[in-house]
Each structure stands twice: as C-alpha cells, then as structure tokens.
Specification:
- The structure is a single chain.
- It is built from eleven helices and eleven strands.
- The chain has helices at about 10-15, 25-30, 40-45, 55-65, 80-85, 95-115, 150-160, 170-180, 200-205, 225-235, 245-255; strands at about 5-10, 40, 70-75, 120, 140-145, 165-170, 185-190, 190-195, 195, 215-220, 240.
- The strands form three sheets. Strands 4-11-10-7-5-6 form a six-stranded mixed β-sheet, with helices on both faces. Strands 2-1-3 form a three-stranded antiparallel β-sheet.
- Helix 10 (about 225-235) links the parallel strand 10 (about 215-220) and strand 11 (about 240).
Length: about 270
Amino acid sequence: MTQELIYRRTETGERAMRGQAGQIAPELIRVLALVSGETHFDLIKKRAIRMPEADLRAALERLISGGYLSAFAAGEEHDLDFTAHFEKPLDTPALTEEDERRIAMAATDGHDVLTKTGSFLQINAAASMTPLGKPWTEITLLIIEDDEIQARFAQNIIMKAGFKQRHAATREEIIAELNKSPLPDCVLLDIELPGTNGFDILARMRQHPRLKTVPVIMLTAMASQQDVFKGLSLGAGAYVAKPYKKQTLVDTVVKTLGLKPFGDTEGDAATR
C-alpha cells in the first residue's frame, strides 16, 4: 500500500466548495478542491503541484479539524495504484488456439452486426455480470475520448439518460481517473488517444486486480474485423461504431450492464 489515509469531503466541505460555509482560507479551498470522492494522499499530492508535502499535510489536518474533510485508514479496496501498474511493461498472454478460433468467429459475427446496426455486444457479456444494486442515477460511466466534440456528445447522452459521467482525454487524465475511488461502473473507451491507445488501456485494465472486471465498451471509428478481434481478445464487452445514434449508445450501455429499463418498478435497481 502506498497510501496511508483516504480523505473525503464532509457535508461542510461540500458547502465550502459552493461558497456556503462561511470564511475559509483560499489556500485551504485549493486543497479541498483536490479531494474528489474517496481520494488517497498520493493522488492529492500529485494534484498539488509544487506544494511541499509538509504544507499539504498541514492543510489537510486543518481541513479535518475544521470539519471540512474526514479521513480514515486505507483498506485493500482502496489500493488503486494504477499509476505504477501503468508504467510496468505490458505482458499480454498468448491466446490458445481454441480461444483464437472462438474470438475470431465472434469478431466476424460482431463486425457484420456492427456494420449493420452500429453496435455489437458479446452474447455472454450481460449474463456474466452480477447485480450492481444501484439505481441508474448512481451508476457512473467513464468516457475516455480525446475529441472534444465527441466527448461532449457522449457526455450529454449519458447525463440525459440519467447516469453519472466522468471524462478523461489524455494519458495522465486516464491514469488519474482510474486511480479514483469509487471505480466507474463502465468505461466507454476510444482507441485513438494522445500518448497511448485504447487497446493498451484495455489490456492494462484487464491485468489490474481492481479493474479487470470493469465492463468496457469500445467507442470508435476503428471498427474493422481486425480491430473487433483485438478488442474482444483483450476483454472488451461491446463495440459502438462512430458516428452513432444517441439511443444506440444508451441501449449498448444498458445491455452491457444488464440493466432493467429506467423507471422499472423493481428498481431502477440495476442488475448487471
């Protein structure tokens, strides 16, 4: 474990961020803004550019004593150090002949379906999911997309559908988002990215103990049979081809996560 404490804003801290909690020193507001969800010290330190560690720790202590932050010991579930994991050499195991044949058949069928309908979902993807136990409005999707127009388009679709969304465009932002807690419930992943590529991100997620089961939908214009094969072999659950229709994206997310229709009397409680 590289981190020692996990920090989270209290209700007072959230009000302070909105300017509704009385007087608070500007330097403390700046540190408070570095805490997003449950955030470990290492990640806060990376965001606090050029701030001495001793000053940062002192500011965090002041925020805790003032009731703006809560802190608790990190458990195993908070060991999300994707930064170090990302820097390791990537070693993707070779496929067996049987797996290669199976994936090749799925890629052929998937490419045909993708060409005709604009999306493709692995048949067993939803069946392998376990219940999320969340309503739609508490499900978070991470959109990894460097094109600003495409990113805004996807964000608007996701938010209007009732989901929460986060966004990353660069290698550094992707690493930061995948270091955050809570983890996203699903990742919408473009292939062509600055400083990296979607296949590399996917492969590294599948080799990380905390990220290997997060559903991934490839959201890309690179939808050749070879691309579909590569995505499926690395563990993608679905493909959506650009340009896509709004409902196509929402339907693919719903099917990938095995969700009930929004407003279903048994729950917007999602099951995946």
